Amino acid sequence: MPIDWEPIWLTLRLAGITTMLLLLIGVPLASWLALSRFRLKPVLEAIISLPLVLPPSVVGFYLLLAFSPTSDFGAWLLHHLNLQLVFSFEGLVVASLLYSLPFMVHPIQAGLENLPVSWREAAYTLGQSPGRTLWRVLLPNCKPAILTGIVLTFAHTIGEFGLVLMIGGNLPGQTRVASIAIYDEVELLHFQTAHTYAALLLVLSFAILLLVYFVNKRVTV
To answer: In 162-182, which positions are buried (b, 16+ CB within 10 angstroms) versus exposed (e)?
Structure first.
């Protein structure tokens, strides 16, 4: 039985959009966490790290309540922005941004924290502003950490199941990503089709991880 490639392309689209947006969000956030001495920083770090310890269904459940048109926030989005996040691709993107945030932030934050403090001090002595020091000195020396964040975010988004099922449901062409398609095929006892989807995700995930280890090794040599 030929497989439907639409869930694969939808999964790649979701992972790609999520990764690009989190790169824009995660780099400034990770930089601030790494360089700031804000007293409540541990609280923010704990909030960002919650998806690492909470089951996806828990995160999905609370996001479902928040995004529902019956909630104040969901009703405001619908009436003022004409945006419904429940059972939509846009909702999957927003949910994936929140759930994959630590996979982008933590590697970059760790990479920045491991750089010698003397590099910043030398840049400041030469008259560089904190912003220019970050973008021209620190981040260029964190390429392996940034690449790790990109790859982990992309790979993690590909493998999401409970969260996307809770927020997006199972709408063909809109929210039926590959992980949902595997579940559907197993329920229908179409094990060969499920195996094909699963094998594609396995090969893709392995290739992504192999690439990041190979590139990081070349960068750090």
So the answer is: bbbbbbbbeeeebbbbbbbbb
Q: Identify which of 119, 185, 97, 110 has the alpha carbon closest to the alpha carbon of residue 142.
A: 110
Q: What is the pLDDT of residues 44-93, one digit of tens each?
A: 999 999 999 988 889 889 999 999 988 999 899 988 888 889 999 999 99
Q: What is d(CA 139, CA 119) in angstroms, rounded to the nearest whole number? A: 12
User: For residues 165 and 179, what is the distance between their CA atoms, to the nearest angstrom?
Assistant: 9
Tokens of 1: 């039985």
Neighbours of 16 (CB within 10 A): 12
Helices (H), the chain: 6-35, 41-53, 56-67, 72-81, 89-113, 117-125, 130-133, 143-158, 162-168, 178-187, 191-220
List, for residues 119-155, the tens digit of each pLDDT value: 887 888 888 888 888 888 888 888 889 988 998 899 8
Separation between Cα atoms, residue 103 and residue 17, nearest integer Å:
15
Residue 104 has pLDDT above 90, yes or no: yes
Distance CA 134, CA 112 (A): 9
Q: Tell whether pTM > 0.90.
A: no
How many residues belong to the chain? 221
